[in-house]
């Protein structure tokens, strides 16, 4: 960890005005990234086509690695015990600026790039969170920064972290736990969205586990007294968990899906499984709710004559906001501006928008930058663990039609065409401009570290919410 001198930080939550004149780093970034718009679209399209799920992203990870290696990056594959995780580096010395790159898809949803519902037969996953764009945009940004470092003779290192299995696999947690961010000065990330924003949003801590009930099989009609239904255990467990919702903090979340419940109604199932998520703004809050959930599972097993055990699958700490960096990123995003649609893209967007019921944003808002604010977000991300290891900052861009929800067919569709590609380009330009600013502004890095260390506190010790388990490489199989 770097030790920087203390500086005074003035903070407020006022809306930052758009800058009339762009910083020179913004113009440089735009030029460097625009030269690689074809690369961004090509990589994003291939990741979209493959739609590989967590820890199985062999082709997707390989493409990102090969692309970076072809640009002179040194690539180390298979880090943190994860075959599809990698670290790619160019340059030398400090500062070390990291850009995170995701690429996993979501199972159980798929869609063509058409603006109306059009599932693809035989395809079992889709880029419903736009991670194909995330990976492509981050790689384009890193390559642009690499060429800027070389052309200007600037000292410093640009590093790309290929982070698999964000969707419920916590790939970044294992990479954080392995110490891969220990020598990083600043980490940056971005995410697809239906709006452009660099607001300082926190996230919910979360933990998940698969609860597995075992019973005794029997003929459901001929000898029901001999059976002990594992599905009864799951259903009793779910009933008690649902009762817990009334007695949880308002900002907490808990949800589940039954992943195994038997195969034939006339057979008492001897195995059943349910997959749970618990979320709370603080890690300690997750621990408190989790202890109650485990007791409910044990009680359900006792009451149904079954047994239960569970496997923690993933766990993420909440995002630690760094307002110093967030305000810098907001400024860069405003200098870049929003996204304009062609006539064809506008017609496409209107068809997508027709499928929404009371959207939060309307068409045209993709051309705007949303107000800067500090707020609680209700999603969870393994970027949270990175943010407790190193000062971290991110942004969101309108890769989807305004009003689109993540994890929807509309998100899959736009992630596979030019609207998504334009959002990835905007993210790449903004990340590049931010990186150039950081390489040229040591005071900014020092201020970010001062805020970071103040928020973590002098006695902070990192704790992973998934314990010491190995990466669950088969959790999507």
Tell me what the structure shows.
One of its GO terms (cellular component) is cytoplasm. GO terms for molecular function: dipeptidase activity; para-aminobenzoyl-glutamate hydrolase activity. Pfam families: M20_dimer, Peptidase_M20. The protein is of the alpha/beta class. The chain folds into two domains: 319 residues, Zn peptidases (Aminopeptidase, 3-Layer(aba) Sandwich), CATH 3.40.630; 112 residues, Alpha-Beta Plaits. The chain has 13 helices and 14 strands. The strands form four sheets. A six-stranded mixed sheet has the order 1-2-6-3-7-14. It has a four-stranded antiparallel sheet with strand order 10-11-9-12. Strand 1 and strand 2 form a beta hairpin. Helix 2 runs antiparallel to helix 3 and helix 4 packs parallel to helix 12. The radius of gyration is 23 Å and the shape is globular. It starts with 23 loop residues before the first helix and ends in a 21-residue tail after the last helix.
